[in-house]
Amino acid sequence: MSAFCQQRIKLNPLFFRVWNSLLCNCFYATSEVKRWKGYRVIAVDGSNIPLVNTPVLREYFGGQSNQECFFVQAKTVYSYDVLNRLLLTAELAPYRTAELTVAYSMVSQLEEDMLTIYDRNFCNYKMIALHLWQEKEIKFVISAKESIAVYRNFIESGKPDEVVRLHPTASAIHGLHQEGYKINKDTLLTVRLVRVELPGKVEVLVTNLWAEDGHEVQLFKDLYFMRWSLETNIDHQKNILQLESFSGLSPLSIQQDF
């Protein structure tokens, strides 16, 4: 066991990420890939993983505390092919890292035949812009925050769908400047809002799937709820595969196991 631990230190966790990418690419190259209207449907979401409370893990990953103790945790963000049941990317980060920050960095890895689905935590101008401004536009469906005026007004209008233009916030302008995009308060994004009626509430979806391309309103309810397949996968990792039973107590071993 001592020899194993000594050799393990030499293995960069990046190896496993590259290996997973290779296996997924082999699947796509050799298998009959399931698609929705020609797209691979990719759900993106995050979760937290509890870790053993040791000084080194506490210093590296951080966590949160209550009146009695401190809980060491890590942040995870996944992209998952819901139709082919493939976990494409899985990012592990310190607990205080925002899911959005990780998700922003993942957009450049998306491919033009992918359709990404996000919940409302990912709904903002910058996320939408990063999809629209890739070399080849990436399709997306994002649940909207009803607290934002443009989405609240759409709900009150009663319309089944509507094409609107989004204005950037100051934080979006600053964030996109950091990404190398030159924008100002007059840089507008054109998106489509789609109304989904649910028991007791209305869900608003923001998308660049256009009606004139054959994407009727009635398709979006089932399409958006495909993302729950990722929630099921995360539950499978934690409760069946025992993801949180790590084989070591160093940041390196946690990253390797993950």
Present the secondary structure layout:
Layout: H1 2-8, H2 14-30, E1 40-50, H3 55-61, E2 63-65, E3 70-81, E4 86-94, H4 99-107, E5 114-118, H5 125-132, E6 139-143, H6 149-157, E7 161-166, H7 170-178, E8 189-198, E9 201-207, H8 220-224, H9 228-239, H10 251-257
Parallel strand pairs: 1-5, 5-6
Antiparallel strand pairs: 1-3, 2-3, 3-4, 6-9, 7-8, 8-9
In short:
The protein is of the alpha+beta class and 258 residues long. It contains ten helices and nine strands.
What percent strand? 25-35%
- Report the mean per-residue pLDDT as an integer: 92
- SSE topology string: HHEHEEEHEHEHEHEEHHH
DSSP strand tally:
9
- CATH-level-2 architecture: Alpha-Beta Complex
What is the 3D form?
globular
Please estimate the helix content: 25-40%
Secondary-structure-based class equals alpha+beta
Number of domains: 1
**What Rg do the Cα atoms give?**
20 Å
Describe the sheet with the most strands.
Answer: 9 strands, mixed
State the separation between the terminal residues, measured CA to CA: 20 Å
CATH class: Alpha Beta
Named CATH topology: Transposase Inhibitor Protein From Tn5, Chain A, domain 1
Detail the poorly predicted runs. none
Give the helix tally. Answer: 10
Keywords:
single chain, 258 residues, alpha+beta, Transposase Inhibitor Protein From Tn5, Chain A, domain 1, nine-stranded mixed sheet, globular
What do these coordinates show?
There is one protein chain. With 258 residues, the chain is α+β, with helices and mostly antiparallel strands. The protein has a single domain (2-257), classed as Transposase Inhibitor Protein From Tn5, Chain A, domain 1. Helices cover 35% and strands 26% of the residues. It has 10 helices and 9 strands. It has helices spanning 2-8, 14-30, 55-61, 99-107, 125-132, 149-157, 170-178, 220-224, 228-239, 251-257; strands at residues 40-50, 63-65, 70-81, 86-94, 114-118, 139-143, 161-166, 189-198, 201-207. Strands 1, 2, 3, 4, 5, 6, 7, 8 and 9 form a 9-stranded mixed beta sheet that branches. A hairpin with a 4-residue loop joins strand 3 and strand 4. Helix 4 (99-107) packs parallel to helix 5 (125-132). The radius of gyration is 20 Å and the shape is globular. It starts with a helix and ends with a helix. 27% of the residues are buried.
